Amino acid sequence: MHRFANPNRFMQISGALLPWTAASTVLLVAAGLYLGLFRAPPDYQQGESVRIMYVHVPTSWMAMFCYTFLAGSAAVGLIWKHPLADLSAKAAAPIGACFTLLALATGSLWGKPMWGTWWEWDARLTSVLVLFFLYLGYIALVNAFDDPTRGVRAGSILALVGFVNVPIIKFSVDWWNTLHQPASVFRMDGPTIHTSMLIPLLLMGVGFTTYFFWVWMLRVRTEIVAGKIRAHRRRQVQRAPVDFAGDGRAVSTEG
Amino acid sequence: MTRLACILGREFRLAQRHGMDSVLVVVFFVLAVVLFPFGVGPEPNILARIAAGVLWVAALFATMLGLERLFQADYEDGSLELLMLTPLPLEGVVLAKVAAHWLTTGLPLLIAAPLLAAILNMNVAGFLVLILALLLGTPTLSLIGTVGAALVLGSRRGGILLSLLVLPLYIPVLIFGVSAVDAAIGGFGVRAQLLILGAFLLASLALCPWAAAAALRQALE
Amino acid sequence: MTDSIAAFFAMGGYAFYVWPSLGLTAVVMVGLLWSSWRGLRSAEGTLESLRAAPTPQGTEASGRPE
Amino acid sequence: MNRFTGHDLDCIRGERLVFTGLRFELAQGEALVLVGANGSGKSSLLRLMAGFLRPARGELRWNGASLSEDPEGHRARICYVGHLDAVKPVLTVAENLGFWAELWGGGLESVGPALRAFGVDHLADVPGRFLSAGQKRRVNLARMAVSRTAALWLLDEPTTALDRAGVAALGKVLAAHRGRGGMAVVATHSELPLDGSKLLDLGYFAMAEVPV
């Protein structure tokens, strides 16, 4: 499917959607925080520290969601050679990395009162840590080339190889964790979450998703504009613009 | 098939002419392992407990040493382009490279490992399983590493970037490699771990040449 | 009233864990948003300046509307 | 009667539309010389013909059949000479050329005559690292003579680093190749002796104004 990448359609659509995603993010997160911090009851076991859940759980969801989105865009980019798909993957990676970092940080902050240590080689935390390295690997690879298209294509292959490995890593870390560590006492999702806790959790989850699309659109637009800047630079470099002499004969204005 | 054999022959001749490389890899492996007693202390039973982990992590790093030069030399002097133009599919060329890499790094590690296990005072029960696990694990490390080497081809920061890409993917092999040896020492069955290592090998044998070939095509565009 | 606010901030003794995690999340997310937004603004600015300035040769054969 | 044709080809490299709507036709025994300013896409077209690049639009055909249907078959019938000489410093000249001879079906016996054709047979046992640039280029060009099955030669500025005698030797080998019914596409600036060859000016297919 060849179309010398004319991204204007994406620019129009994203231009229209940006204000909506921005507004819905602010509203959802504000509502989620308000309910989570003020209205929802403390946990009978953990007391107030359970409120960390309202950021830890959504960031963990987003960490996985972003990598799936990244791998999906990479697959579309590789299979259908659509340049925008590659840009979409490149734009999604930093957001995913930030969410993974937050998932780890809030997880460890929540772990301290519960398990008494900042870091716990719990199967989930460990596989999220490995996922964080996969993100860093992708971002480093994409920016390691002079030619940006070369970078995103290499990154797409890595994203797919990484995506195939995520379940394998999860499986091997679970196995490894059960060998070394008794299954962690604290069960993250508890028996059944009380609706008063579930609603803020879902609000935050959806709010973080719209946040993702908001920042993702900003970053994709930046990539598109950067592409146009590079095109301008190249035209400045071409010393001898070829003037068509009108009768289809190419006349090079400079020897 | 003769073309594959022809490429293999050339790789071995090149490896043989560059004999020093595989020697350096083994020297690095030995050095890395010997450093641990200085760090952790010569206490025999501590060393015995961490022996399997130390050997496997050192083997991981040693394997990665040989990866960066895997395609770089051919890429720079133009042979890689011509190899891509042979009627042989690119995956065949990748397999030849993996075989050459394994023979110059994986095999020497396999030979050196038991000696180092002895130095680390590892329980004798673990020796045979260590060799079996390394036999199944090191080719997988070479295969996954080849994908990394192909991906970083032509990038500015080859070496460091390669390790950042490849190490997370090595974790499953590391986990099951070490647990196989620990299980053997502990007297438990090792069949499950070895079977899983075998599964990793077969899976990467199927997937990695394809991914590395795709990466090479990007690099040679 | 005042002690209920103080109690709220104390977070049942877990203030030291709850507020940093909320704060960190806010800082990272707003920071990422701000840097993405600023990146877009500066890129668009550069593009505008490039388009405004005529290209050095002047005789730009534009067989196609910009 | 082999025919190698290209139908309104678009080539995108990196983010640049290098050329668009390019058409050419090449019959058995003919040679096509690519001319055009630097960066007009001569190398890109040669790499497209060799199969390193897939055209963004349009297609290449061999005797009417599109190349994408049988990429391996196409690779068997081409010999590509790029800017780099692919001579391994640790291997001797004979070993270097012997490897390519076996890959392209020429067999080890074709190595001697190929080296003689380019006047480097006296270097057969010399390791590659001792060769000068011109000698390396001659060894690289000798690869064409051992590619028995290659009907189509793709040469990207083959005369760089060659002295006059080298250019003459190349001219002779090319003429013999075309005499045997082979085809050649050459991107060159120097006056390589190619009588009766077609000209393709890539400037004609350049995209005047890239839509930005």
Determine the CATH topology of chain A: Four Helix Bundle (Hemerythrin (Met), subunit A)
Helix and strand element order of chain C: HH
Mean pLDDT of chain C: 78
Distance between the termini of chain A: 37 Å
Rg of chain C (C-alpha, Å): 25 Å
If strands are numbered along the chain, what order do they take across the biggest sheet of chain A? 1-2
Which structural category do the helix and sheet elements of chain C fall into? Answer: mainly alpha
**Main sheet makeup of chain C:** none
What descriptive keywords fit this protein?
heterotetramer, A: 255 residues, mainly alpha, Four Helix Bundle (Hemerythrin (Met), subunit A), two-stranded antiparallel ribbon, 6 helices, D: 212 residues, alpha/beta, five-stranded parallel beta sheet, four-stranded antiparallel beta sheet
Q: How would you portray this structure in words?
A:
- The complex is a heterotetramer of chains A (about 260), B (about 220), C (about 70) and D (about 210).
- Chain A is an all-alpha fold and about 260 residues long.
- Chain A has six helices and two strands; from the N terminus they run ααααααββ.
- Chain A has helices spanning about 10-40, 55-80, 85-115, 125-140, 150-180, 195-235, and strands at about 240-245, 250.
- In chain A, strand 1 and strand 2 (about 250) form a beta hairpin.
- Chain A starts with 7 loop residues before the first helix and ends with a strand.
- Chain C has one domain (about 1-50).
- In chain C, about 70% of the residues lie in helices and about 0% in strands.
- Chain D is globular and about 50 Å long.
- The mean pLDDT of chain D is about 85.
- In chain D, strand 1 (about 5-15) and strand 2 (about 15-25) form a beta hairpin.
- The termini of chain D are far apart.
- Chain D has helices at about 40-50, 70-75, 95-105, 110-115, 135-145, 165-180; strands at about 5-15, 15-25, 30-35, 55-60, 65, 80, 150-155, 185, 200.
- In chain D, about 45% of the residues are buried.
- By secondary structure, chain D is an alpha/beta fold.
- The interface between A and C is large, with 42 and 33 residues.
Entry summary:
The complex is a heterotetramer of chains A (255), B (221), C (66) and D (212). Chain B contains nine helices and no strands. Chain B has 221 residues and is an all-alpha fold.
